Amino acid sequence: MFIKNKIRKDIFITGKKELKFLKFLFPGISYIFVDRKNNAIPALKAGADILRQGKSLIIFPEGTRSSNGVLKEFKTGAAFLAKELKKTIIPMTINGAFKIFPKNRLFPRFITKEKITLTIGKKINPVNYKSIDRLNSVLFNTIKGELILRN
Q1: φ, ψ (nearest 5 deg) of residue 48
Q2: Which of 20, 43, 80, 85 is positioned for an S-S bond with 34, CB 3.0–4.6 A?
Q3: How many Cβ atoms sit within 10 Å of the Cβ of residue 71?
Q4: What angle do CA 58, 94, 122 make, to 5 degrees?
């Protein structure tokens, strides 16, 4: 991932705490690590602080990679933060990652004809939705629709 320093300092990426080694593989990128087994509240608080500072937060709402390539139900953390803080969401759909890096592999397939595409969707304003669950449903259906369109 190549991002200019100024931009990179304003973007934080969420990931499970078991991925802390990424800090060493990609120095200079900021992470918020989530303890998915015990308590995600500290990660939510850290994410809220980041967003209040006007920085961007990348959240993978499934919480983990799919074991079969089918989109998993979304956790509510992203919708909660957006709704509570009135922050616009820019949905991003990653298509093809499962074929290159399925969950059962330690490393991605580097030699392959498969492609990964990233689609950046239209902004979603959380103020337009009455509940976190409704917003989360809209986010899920937006990503799912993009995956259907691309396959």
Answers
A1: -60, -40
A2: 43
A3: 15
A4: 70
* The two three-digit tokens of residue 97, written as one number: 């990652």
Confidence at residue 11, expressed as pLDDT on a 0 to 100 scale: 87
- Cα–Cα distances in angstroms (integers) from residue 135 to residues 41, 81, 92, in the given order: 20, 11, 15
User: What letter represents residue 1's amino acid?
Assistant: M
Q: Find the angle CA(80)-CA(71)-CA(15) to the nearest 5 degrees.
A: 55
Tokens of 106: 């330690």
How many domains is the chain built from? 1
Six-digit token pair at 34? Answer: 């989530």
Helix spans in 12-131 (H): 22-25, 41-52, 77-85, 97-100
Range of the domain at 117: 3-149
* Angstrom distance (rounded) from CA 83 to CA 67: 29
E strand intervals along the chain: 11-16, 30-34, 56-58, 92-95, 117-120
